[in-house]
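FYI - complex with S-adenosylmethionine, inputs then prediction.
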Amino acid sequence: MARFLSLFLVCLLATASLFGLSGCATQQLEAGTDYTYSSPSSDGIGKIYLGREIAQVMGHEGAYWLERPSRELEERPQTALEALELRRDDVVADIGAGTGYFSFRLAAKVPDGKVLAVDLQPEMLALIDQKKEETGLTNIDPIQGSLDQPNLPLNSVDLALMVDAYHEFAYPREMMQGIVAALKPGGRVVLAEYRAENPLILIKRLHKMSQRQAQKEMAAVGLRWIKTDERLPQQHLLFFEKPGEG
Ligand SMILES: C[S@@+](CC[C@H](N)C(=O)[O-])C[C@H]1O[C@@H](n2cnc3c(N)ncnc32)[C@H](O)[C@@H]1O
């Protein structure tokens, strides 16, 4: 019976690959993790986490795009900042900070606190350093992250913000576990992600995320969903909380 079943499975996979369903045919589980692999989509890396294919990282060559003037209208960064309800002395981690488009705006809102601007690409961090000199803002610390860790100090962060970044993390579970460890008890995580539910939002598929998917992925690392704020034209602002002690 077992032999029959395994033969059936092999045939099923072979048939699937004949019909171009190579995703099913080649899926493999990475030992001891939650990741599976299939042939990559045009904007993905072929690695799947909780049913979602991870997007390709936006290279530093595209830094100018993050600073495009039309972003003010498209993403309304000031409105996003208001939604965060920051305190003057908050420690905010801007993870996947890119050129620091949000880090510098955040720094102005937390004059008695600071912004930890984490990115994977040293070229992005160099741009943040350069802008720090130009603006004279001192409450921003650029931090070199790695593929699976944000390299933040433990129990030190009030708010971890990820704007258009989380969907690119190659190790989302490990990154989020690192972020949760860096949060103070009761600390918040906010994801700004283009709405996958809306096909009229013309952003590459894997660079968007549904509310349901984000809730599933944050619950997997023990974060509690607080609310989803829909005041932005194209993005969800998804709020989560690290449960407090006791
Ligand atoms: C699309 S950009 C968004 C940048 C910025 N948040 C903004 O809104 O302008 C995504 C950024 O996430 C960074 N990134 C991707 N994976 C990362 C990781 N594992 N750790 C830290 N940064 C990461 C990329 O290097 C890139 O700068």
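Residues 57-58, 66, 95-98, 101-102, 118-121, 124, 145, 147, 163-165, 168-169, 175 surround S-adenosylmethionine (CB under 6 Å). The chain has two domains: 2-55, 60-241.
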